[in-house]
Amino acid sequence: MRHYCNQCKKTITPAVYNYSMNHYNHALCRAHQPKNNTSNNEKSGLEELGNFFSQIGKVISFLNEKGGSGLILTVLGAVIILYNLLMFNVWTIVVGGIILGVGIFLLIKKEQNK
């Protein structure tokens, strides 16, 4: 079966066709493929990742305002434990428990100093 570029109608090789379909969702010859080598799917994935880290930064700032590093470590430890319980990863659960314990210790210490 022959493949053709959607824009110029030139014949393209199966390899070029497969690459173009996987990256751009269109059959494009090499001349008509975008030069930045980043497909729309990759861009949206990077944007989502950027938004995710932006939200994490906001959550950490909020936790820091409310309870300082103790609260941040407590929440982080709890998240690590919960995630790794789902993944059945025993050693990381231990690490999460240590972080959780340090966070709770810092929260208690902060409350005692008030």
- Rg over CA atoms: 25 Å
N- and C-termini, Cα separation: 77 Å
Structural class: mainly alpha
Would you tell me the overall average pLDDT? 82
Spans where pLDDT lies below 50 across 5 or more residues = none
Count of helix runs? 3
Helical residues, percent = over 70%
Please characterize this protein's 3D structure.
This protein is mostly helical. It has a domain at 55-114. It contains three helices and two strands; from the N terminus they run ββααα. The protein has helices at residues 14-24, 40-87, 90-112, and strands at 3-4, 11-12. β1 and β2 form a beta hairpin. The longest helix is centred in the middle third of the chain and has 48 residues, at 40-87. The protein is elongated and about 75 Å long. It starts with a strand and ends with a helix. The mean pLDDT is 82.
